[in-house]
Amino acid sequence: MKPQANLFRITDSKYIPLICTFELTRRCNLRCRHCYIDVPPDVRSELSTGEIKNSLKQLSRMGTLMLVFTGGEIFLRKDLLELCRYAKKLNFDLKLFTNGTQISKNDAEELSKISISGVEISLYGRENVHDGITGRKGAFEKSIRSVEMLKKHGINVTIKCPLTNLNYSERGWIRKFAKKSGINFKFDPTIAPADSGNQEILKYRMNNRQLTNIYRELGEKPPEAPARRRLDDLSCSAGRNVISIISDGTVYPCLQLALPLGNIKHQKLDRIWSQKNKVLAGYRSISNKDIAVCNSCDMAYLCQRCPGIAKLEDGSLFGPSKIACQIAKIHKKMN
Amino acid sequence: MRIKKAPSIAWRKIEGRAFVIEAATSTLHELNEPGTFLWEMINKGTDIEEMVKRTVREYSICDRTARKDIMNFVDRLSKAGMIENKRQ
Ligand code: SF4
């Protein structure tokens, strides 16, 4: 068995939180129209440097290897480099998700010394479109400068582009830009409802024709393979070998799945993650038979259903997700 | 000779085996049990002479075999960019 498959098999079956998405802050200097964070952040509730370091130590003991620092905008935290250094000392594979507007030359130099695994920068297209979506003039220029600066310092950079009907026509430019700069790019066509449950931003989702074109261009396969454990299993890795901690210390099975399991400010992480945690054990026990409609769906084998998005779309963890159904139908037609 | 893990390397011991990621290429390696035993010593900064001694004890093999196996292992790690050699 390949190392990757073996590692996923072991950690999935033993509930080892191999992958952690750690939201360091909800603060952000941009106002992206499709952003899922729509509740103004309460800065006072943000984890302190010490609390984050303490959780990282616990995660490393529990077996977490892949770590993502995300936000909000993580470079708004003054202790970011300190946290990166600490995470690397604990031997994590560390990636940073950022909008790229707040990275200084010194940051790039330091990140290169720390040897992080990569930085993913959100970019939505050319200047007008990018600045329009992010609601800040000059954002494009700063993000592009960061891409170049990080690359110059030998850091792996990936352009991450959530695709909406606002920047659908920018995809060709993004692709060319990434190619010219010698960096990777990723499109994500799945716009999720806001975490408050507000569906307003779904108006930015692409229509059927646009989605079909995207998948045609990317080849038959969806851009991100579903986080399926097995093809005949409708559940994903959330709460098994995927864990998420948000900026106030609340632990979720995944950043997309707002199911509070506990808070690291008051509880030890291994207790929150244990089978004794009724909420988590209940979530892990969900099987195909509990997921109505989907369990008899003839497109299930093509489906990208994310339980978190399903829950945000209509409040239920136990049913289909509109965007997953839409994408599965497109793939069925293409097959 | 003392050997040091390359700074970009990420790793974790999971169910008795070391899983090691090279950041530059995002390659994941899975070390077997003896490999994990040696890797852990490398991470603690153990020098080669001490590694040989401990390997002889752990696997009841002769000094020569242990040294040869360790040097082969170190050579492979070095070629994969997973360690930095420091002669002392
Ligand atoms: S396509 Fe829709 S109904 Fe079918 S499995 Fe996916 S989410 Fe469920």
Characterization of the model:
The complex is a heterodimer of chains A (335) and B (88). Chain A is of the alpha/beta class and 335 residues long. Helix content of chain A is 36%, strand content 12%. Chain A has helices at residues 3-14, 49-62, 80-89, 105-114, 127-134, 139-152, 171-181, 208-217, 269-272, 278-284, 307-314, 322-334; strands at 19-23, 66-70, 93-98, 118-122, 157-162, 184-188, 242-245, 250-252, 262-263. A nine-stranded mixed β-sheet of chain A has the order 6-5-4-3-2-1-7-8-9, covered by helices on one side. Chain B has one domain (2-86). In chain B, the strands form two sheets. A three-stranded antiparallel β-sheet of chain B has the order 2-3-4, with helices on one face. A two-stranded antiparallel ribbon of chain B has the order 1-5. In chain B, strand 3 (17-22) and strand 4 form a beta hairpin. In chain B, helix 2 packs across helix 3. The interface between A and B is medium-sized, with 25 and 16 residues. The complex binds iron/sulfur cluster (SF4). Residues 293-294, 297, 299-300, 303, 305, 320-321, 324-325, 328 of chain A line the site of iron/sulfur cluster.
